[in-house]
Amino acid sequence: MVRSPGGRGLPRGVADAAATDAGRLPDHQAASPVRRVRRRRPPARYIGVCYGAPGLGKTLSARTYASADDWERWDNERYEKDTVLPDSLLASRTLLYTPEVHVTGRRMHLEIALRVSALGSDIDRALDPTCHPSWNELNTDCSTELVIVDEADRLKTAGLEQLRDFFDRRDLGLILIGMPGFDRQLARYPQLYSRIGFAHQYKPLDVDDLPLVLTNYWDQLGLPLDPDDTNDFETVSAVVRITGGNFRLIERLMTQVARVMEINQLDTTLDPERRNYLRFPRPPSSFPMPATSMEPERPVGGGPSSC
């Protein structure tokens, strides 16, 4: 198995599609390994594995890359008059699938195969209006190029073997996303393990990556964030120290910041002392406590675990 390079923080050189969505994690975590699968086909075609601790943005980055929100809207509106396939689906050609906890291998295969064929047929029709494919036929050749299976560590032996068989019968890439240790779990299945081309570990955000995420949140709050400013740099460092770079905890912390501002009827024009209070978990002793605490809730176990 080839380990992906990385180090701390997020992989570089990735499109900032999600960065325009204020307050959301940019698609830096999963896009790099995803593109590695797609860039090498044909002729190279293999399975990729991504794993990481809870709250690091695995599902969010996968949904962003696959344009899952656009797919869900399109799936409900495809038969309405004058509907057009979203450009994001035409560009990604990627299907995101999350299995249920007790899904059987047969049901999972039917669900993935039908959705892959449906997306591929929609892409064919968008490219050639005279094309009339039948998506309800489980064709092995279609325009869908990549399938991402989230929460793949839920699957038992039969489900994983069904995914391997699905991968062997179709000309597409496959990425499995799971919790830490999922890559070692797959080593128990030699036939599947031999098809894995890389394993990518999600890393917590660090001081260099956090300003991009916090800038989006600060824009929502109406507060400018200048990473070159000493006070703002200390703000970023404090957020890293409180959350450990865990995106889910960052999102929870910023939600509490917005709630404090709303409860205390604070506007965006704040004096420096009050603004500093909003940015740090504990206020100066000379500043009165607000109606609610700024301290974020800690997960059971004492804090986010780092990979």
Total number of distinct structural domains: 2
Query: Which stretches of 5+ consecutive residues score pLDDT under 50?
Result: 1-23, 26-30, 278-307
Number of helical stretches of at least 4 residues = 12
Note the run of SSEs as H and E. EHEHHHEHEHEHHEHHHH
The global form is globular
Describe what you observe in this structure.
The chain is of the alpha/beta class and 307 residues long. The chain folds into two domains: 2-201, Rossmann fold, CATH 3.40.50; 207-307. 42% of the residues lie in helices and 9% in strands. It has twelve helices and six strands. Helix 5 runs parallel beside helix 6 (157-169). The model is unreliable at 1-23, 26-30 and 278-307 (pLDDT under 50).
Provide the descriptors you would attach to this structure in a database record.
globular, alpha/beta, disordered N terminus, 2 domains, disordered C terminus, 307 residues, 6 strands
Helices, strands, pairings?
Blueprint: E1 2-3, H1 31-39, E2 47-51, H2 58-66, H3 68-77, H4 87-92, E3 94-97, H5 105-127, E4 146-149, H6 157-169, E5 173-178, H7 182-185, H8 190-193, E6 196-201, H9 210-221, H10 230-243, H11 247-263, H12 272-279
Parallel strand pairs: 1-6, 2-5, 2-6, 3-4, 4-5
Structure in a nutshell:
The chain is of the alpha/beta class and 307 residues long. It has helices spanning 31-39, 58-66, 68-77, 87-92, 105-127, 157-169, 182-185, 190-193, 210-221, 230-243, 247-263, 272-279; strands at 2-3, 47-51, 94-97, 146-149, 173-178, 196-201.
